Amino acid sequence: MMQIEDFKFESVAIYNEAWELLVKKQLDYGPKNIANAPGGPLNGLLVRMHDKMARLNHLIYEVKDTPQNESIEDSFIDLLNYSAIALMVLRGKWSGVPSQQD
């Protein structure tokens, strides 16, 4: 069983890895792909997350070989980052999007 200190270390390492990718992609995409998504920013994020979940289901349950273009880990990291973006949108911290909180 993993000890709490090991759990903390491993989770921070994963969050840091995801954060680095999130920042790189933000530099490439900018905020408008989320802010101006058809149906609104949360809808755009849900569509992206749904696509990732469909991809994961396919990779985990149907593909017998190693994925060629995006690994299972990559898809999970993207889901983590989409969740972070969704929280920024909800909190009014995403450029071009007012707060979505109740």
Report on this model:
The model has no long low-confidence stretch (mean pLDDT 93). The protein contains four helices and no strands. The chain is an all-alpha fold and 102 residues long. It has one domain (7-90). It has helices spanning 4-29, 32-35, 41-61, 72-90.
Q: Label the overall shape.
A: globular
Tally the beta strands.
0
Q: H/E order of the elements?
A: HHHH
Low-confidence stretches: none
Q: Major sheet, described briefly?
A: none
First-to-last CA distance: 40 Å
Number of helices: 4
Structural category is mainly alpha
The whole-number mean of residue pLDDT values reads: 93
Strand fraction band? under 5%
Name some characteristics of this structure.
69% helix, mainly alpha, 0% strand
Quick recap:
With 102 residues, the chain is mainly alpha-helical. 69% of the residues lie in helices and 0% in strands.
Layout of helices and strands, plus pairs?
Blueprint: H1 4-29, H2 32-35, H3 41-61, H4 72-90
Helix pairs in contact: 1-4, 3-4
